[in-house]
Amino acid sequence: MRIALFVTCLADTLFPAAAKATVRLLERLGHEVVFPPGQTCCGQMHINTGYQRDALPLVRRHVRTFAPYDVVVASSGSCVGSVRHQHATVARAAGEASLAARAEDVASRTYELSELLVDVLGVEDVGAWYPHRVTYHPTCHSLRMLRVGDKPLRLLRHVRGMELVELPDADQCCGFGGTFALKNAETSTAMLADKMRHVLDTGAEVCTAGDASCLMHIGGGLSRMDAGVRTVHLAEILAATEES
Amino acid sequence: MTRTFLGMPATAPRGVGNLRGDEPFPAAAHKALADDQLRRNLGHATGTIRRKSGAVVAELPDWQELRAAGSALKAATMARLPELLEQLEEKVTAAGGVVHWAADANEANRIVTDLVRATGQRRVIKVKSMATQEIGLNEALAEAGIAPVETDLAELIVQLGDDKPSHILVPAIHRNRAEIREIFLREMPGVDPGLTDDPATLAAAARRYLRETFLSTPVAVSGANFAVAETGTLVVLESEGNGRMCLTLPETLITVMGIEKVVPAWRDLEVFLQLLPRASTGERMNPYTSMWTGVTPGDGPQSFHLVLLDNGRTAVLADEVGRQALHCIRCSACLNVCPVYERTGGHAYGSVYPGPIGAVLSPQLTGVADNASLPYASSLCGACFDACPVRIDIPSLLVHLRNKAPHPRTERIAMAAAAYTMDHPALYTRAQHAAKLSGRLKHLPPPLNGWTASRDLPEPPAETFRDWWARR
Asked: Cysteine-rich domain spans which residues (chain A) (predicted)?
C-alpha cells in the first residue's frame, strides 16, 4: 500500500526518531511510504489556543498537500484528532464550505499509527523485539477523540522480549494540553506530578505513548527529576527488531 | 410577560451575580495548589464519587442511548424555549401559582425580597439551589434584614463557615469532617460542646438545629431541577429529605428557576430521572423527588411563586455552538472526572459554576471578555464530554470560546508569526534549523518559563526528519 506520512511539525523538528521509526516499520511491513513535501503543521495549537482564523491557511495547506493520497498516517493521536474533528469546523467557521468538504474527505483517509496498523493493514504482530520493561500511557486525544481503544496495547502485547506493565490511572491526563502547559503551568505541573508518580510505581524503564507531545511533557518532567525512566514513542518500539 | 425574548438576542442582558472571580484562573489556582489539605480532600472526594457513579452507569446497557435522548430532548427544548416558557407560565398560573420574570440577578433578588417582605417574615428556609447561589440571593436577603437558612447539609456547612460553595453537588467538598466539626462548634446555635467529628454525630447535630428551624419558618425558597411545561409541575431532586421539608411545611414557597430548566412533557422526565442520579450522586434512583403543581388547597404551601431567571441565558441561546451549555442538568459528573478541578478545587473558577461546565457556562453568561481565563482552564483531555449525561461537548465548547476570547497582544503577534512561518515551508525549514542551533535551553523567558519551571526541554536532534528524508 502507498501511504503518505504526515510527520507533524513536532516530530519533524524535535522528535524525528518517532517519524523515522514509522517509516522503517511501514516499509518493513512491505508498504511504500511517501513524504508530501509541502506539509508543515496541522494548526492544532492555533485552533486550541483560540486562533482559528490564523489556522485557516494551515488547514488549507494541509488539505491541499494530502488530498492526492488514499491513505495518510501520523504517529500522533492529537494531530489526527485535529485533522478529523477540527479542520472542517475551522473551514466552515470561515465560510469555506468546499474546503470543509475536502477537509472531511482528507480526514476520512487519515489514520493514527495504531489505527492504520490494526484497522487498515490488519496487523497486530509487527515482528518487533524490544527487551525492556515498558508502561503505556494512552494519551487523551487517542483515547477520547479517536477512540483507538486497546489497539496500541494489542500491538505492544505482540512485541517480543518486552515486559508490558499496566500504568495505574492510565486514562488520566498528563497535564500537557498544548498551551495549557504554559498558561496554567502550575496546574499542569500538578497533573504531571501524579502521572510521573504512577509511571515510577510501575518500575518501568520506558514510558511509551502514541503522541510525541505528551511524551515531551512526561519526558521533560522525568528528566528534570532525574528519574532514570525514558520516554519512547510507540512507533520506535514497534520498529525495533533484533537486527536493528 | 415575554419581554425577555423581545428585541435582538445579541443585546439580551448579560448575567450578573456570582459568576466571576476577582482574579484570573491561574492566579486563583496558584493559591489552591499550595493547599495540600484541600488537594487531599478533593482527591479523596472526587475519586469516591467517580467510582460510585462509574459503577452504576456501567449497569445500564442503554446508557449511551439515554444520553443521546437527553441531549436530543434538551436541543428540542432550546429550539422552542419561548413558547414552552409561556406554556409553563399559563399552567402554573392556572394551578394557583404566580409567575415572575427576572431579566437578571438584581431583578430576581428584588422580586424574591419583596415577596418575603410581603409575608412579614424575617427568616426563610432554603432548599439547595444553584440559581439562588448564582444570583447571590442570600446576600440580598441579608441586606434586607431577612435571614436565609440553608437546609442542605453541605450548604449549611458552607453558610455557617462564611464560605463559598466549591462544587455543584457537594458544595462543601473542600472541607473534611474535622473542619466541619470546628465550624459547627463555632457557628451552630445550641450545638453540643462535646461534638465529635463522627459523620453520624455531625449529621445529628445539623438535624436537631434544622428541625427546629423547619417547624418555625413559614417561608421557603427553592430552585428547580425541571419544570414540566404541559402541566406546570415543578420538580426538585435531593438526597436528604430536608428539601422536601422546605417544599411541604411552609405557607409560602418561592422557586427561582433558570429558564433553561423547562422540559416539554412529563414523559421527558423518564429520561432525565434515569440520567441525573446515576451521573450525579452515583445512585440508581434519586432518594427524594418532590413534584408540585401550583397550589393544592389544604396541602402544602398555600402561596406559590415561580421566578423565571434569565441572567444571561438568552444571550447564550443566541450562540449556535455555545447554547449546548444550557443543556446542563447540574449533575456535576464533569467536575468529578476533571483532572484540573481535582487539583484546583471549585473556588479557583471564581463562579458558582466551577469545573468544566463552569468554564463554558460562566463566561457565556457574563460575556467571554469578562471571564476570559476560564475557557483556558482545561487541558482538553475530554473526560468531561464522556461523563456528561446529556452529551455536552465541553472540549469543543472550550475551543469555541477560546476563539471568541480577547487575547494578549504579544501572544497575538507570536501566533500570527508562527502561522505565517508554518504556511511558508522555506521559512519553516529555516526556523527549524535556527531552533537546532540554539541548542538545549535550560530556562525559557516569560511567558514560556512556565514550561522550564518544572520540565526540561528535549535535546534538539542532529537533523530534522525532512532533512533526513531529503538525503535518504
From this structure: 3-82, 134-218
pLDDT per residue as tens digits for the range B424-435: 999 999 999 988
**CATH domain B77-313 topology:** Rossmann fold (3.40.50)
B254, B126 in Cβ contact below 8 A? no
Q: Which of B39, B396, B457 sits opposite A220 (nearest CB)?
A: B457
User: Closest approach of chain A CAs to the CA of B146, in angstroms?
Assistant: 40
Burial class (CB in 10 A: 0-12, 13-18, 19+), B30: middle
Considering only the beta carbons, identify the residue of A49, A61, A172 that sits closest to B415. Answer: A49
DSSP string computed for B86-126: HHHHHHHHHTT-EEEEESSHHHHHHHHHHHHHHHT-SEEEE
Are the C-beta atoms of residues B278 and B56 closer than 8 Å to each other? yes
* Per-residue pLDDT tens digits for B251-268: 999 999 999 999 999 999
Enumerate the residues of chain A whose CB falls inside 8 A of the CB of residue B465: 7, 11-13, 16, 19-20
Kindly state whether A173 is in contact with chain B, defined as any CB-CB distance less than 8 angstroms: yes
Residue of B nearest to A213 (CA): B458
β-pairing, B233-238 with B226-228? Answer: antiparallel
Q: Which chain A residue's Cα is nearest to B415?
A: A46
ipTM above 0.85, yes or no: yes
Q: Is B461 on the interface with A (CB under 8 A)?
A: yes
Which tens digit of pLDDT belongs to each residue from B183-220?
Answer: 999 999 999 999 999 999 999 999 999 999 999 999 99
Among 1.10.3470, 2.60.98, 3.40.50, 1.20.120, what is the CATH number of A133-239? 3.40.50
Closest CA to A73 of A126, A19, A136, A127: A19
Interface membership of A170 toward B (CB under 8 Å): no
Give the pairing of strands B252-258 and A230-233. unpaired
Domain parsing of chain B, residue ranges: 77-313, 409-471
User: Are B395 and B382 in contact, with CB atoms under 8 Å apart?
Assistant: yes
- The C-alpha atoms of residue B316 and residue B210 are separated, in whole angstroms, by 38
Per-residue burial over A56-72, b if 16 or more Cβ lie within 10 Å, else e, is bbbbbbbbebbeebebb
- pLDDT averaged over consecutive 10-residue blocks of chain B (472 residues)? 42 81 96 92 92 97 98 98 98 98 97 98 97 97 97 95 92 92 94 94 94 95 98 97 96 98 98 97 96 97 98 96 97 97 96 97 95 97 98 98 96 96 95 81 82 91 96 90
Indicate the residue type of B187: E
Q: Which chain A residue's Cα is nearest to B434?
A: A13
Interface contact A171-B425, CB threshold 8 A: no
CA distance A180 to chain B (A): 6
Quick one: cell of B76?
428540542
pTM of the model: 0.95
A48 shares contact with chain B (CB less than 8 Å)? yes
Nearest-Cα residue of chain B relative to residue A215: B458
